[in-house]
Design a protein that fits this description.
The chain contains 8 helices and 11 strands. By secondary structure, it is of the alpha+beta class. It has 3 domains: 108 residues, no CATH class; 52 residues; 130 residues, Sandwich (Immunoglobulin-like), CATH 2.60.40.
């Protein structure tokens, strides 16, 4: 049976055999509040009395019923003739004369006597005098007595033993914090959906809010790498690259060079000019460890690479001070070569290379 504290609203799961048909006192383990509960049941407990209209009060309140019946027995017309609180006037009482007594004129006065007069027989003057009625005795005021204790309590027990019982300590019972199964499933599904949405929002943010389903795996890898997103020109969207060769080359001063070669494709219906490719070197943790840029269509042989001085590679791509123009026809292709002239000391075969177009123009555009 689930029980909730009325003070702190902490819920408990109490077995029904701990409650029974009678009321039961409980003590909350959280706030120490003592409260009484009774199990609801459609079965009338033993000893329960059903009062009808004729018997509307229990036996202990019978004195109220008797007082009501006495008030109904008084005649209301009599109360109307005599205003309440006004005493009745005294009434004279006349006693009849004695027939054998002679007239007062023919009877001689009795000689004075020192004997005590008999006061039992009244004199004629006393008989004719009005008699003062005796004051009525005060009516005793009924004293209301306290009703006797009930023989049976409303729950049918011979004595209210549940009131003397110690409160049941609810600390020994498990607090009901269970969530319905459908709510648990809904929360789990909602949490997974929220995590998936947050995941794709993060990937989209790292990739400049430009997600592509064919490139989704690469975009996810980039989102969790240390690289930063770079907004590329619109003209480079239709250019793709492939890697066909990657090799190491040692220079004259024991410098290491990584040469990456491949092909570049223009998948657009219009030609492109001034195409520049960028190569990035990633370690096994997907961190960028090297970067280089070069136009397509420009390459060096191994002998030229070995004689390159540090920082002189940029001049090779700018003959006459102007960047070499790599042009690709519509749906055309070309070759490219990228040279990493500053390899990290821990470079090994686990490093990967990424090549993409970072610059392109429409023919005739400045």
């Amino acid at each position: 049976m689930k029980i909730k504290c009325p003070e702190c609203e902490l819920a408990y799961n109490v077995p029904e055999d701990k409650i029974g048909d009678q009321p039961r006192k409980m003590r909350c383990k959280n706030c120490d509040t003592i409260f009484t509960i009774a199990r609801r049941t459609s079965i009338i407990p033993s000893g329960y009395k059903q009062f009808n209209v004729e018997q509307s009060l229990p036996d202990e309140f019978s004195f109220l019923k008797e007082a009501t019946q006495k008030n109904k027995a008084i005649d209301p017309d009599t109360l109307a003739e005599e205003p309440a609180g006004r005493p009745s006037p005294p009434m004279a009482v006349v006693h009849p004369a004695t027939p054998s007594a002679p007239p007062a004129a023919d009877v001689a006065p009795a000689p004075p006597d020192n004997r005590v007069a008999d006061r039992s027989t009244p004199t004629p003057a006393q008989a004719l005098a009005p008699e003062t009625p005796a004051a009525p005795a005060p009516t005793p005021t009924p004293t209301r007595q306290s009703p006797p204790p009930p023989a049976n309590d409303p729950y049918g027990s011979s004595s209210p033993a549940w009131e003397q019982q110690q409160p049941l300590d609810l600390g020994a019972f498990q607090v009901t914090q269970a969530v319905p199964q459908n709510q648990q499933t809904g929360k789990i599904v909602g949490g997974i959906a929220a995590l998936v949405i947050l995941f794709f929002v993060f990937v989209a943010f790292r990739n400049g809010w430009d997600l592509s389903l064919p490139n989704l795996a690469d975009q996810v890898a980039f989102a969790f790498s240390s690289g930063s997103y770079e907004a590329l020109p619109e003209e480079t969207e239709s250019i793709e690259t492939t890697i066909s060769n990657r090799r190491l080359l040692a220079g004259a001063d024991n410098r290491g060079f990584l040469i990456v070669e491949g092909e570049v494709f223009n998948n657009a219906a219009a030609s492109r000019s001034h195409v520049v490719l960028r190569g990035r070197l990633f370690d096994k943790h997907n961190d960028v460890r090297g970067e280089t840029k070069a136009p397509c269509g420009r390459s060096l042989d191994d002998a030229q690479v070995k004689t390159l001085q540090k920082g002189s590679l940029n001049g090779h791509y700018r003959p006459g001070g102007e960047l070499y123009n790599c042009a690709l026809k519509a749906n055309g292709a070309g070759a490219y070569q990228l040279i990493f002239d500053d390899l990290p000391l821990d470079y090994d075969s686990s490093f990967t290379v990424e090549v993409q177009a970072v610059l392109a123009r429409y023919p005739g555009a400045s």
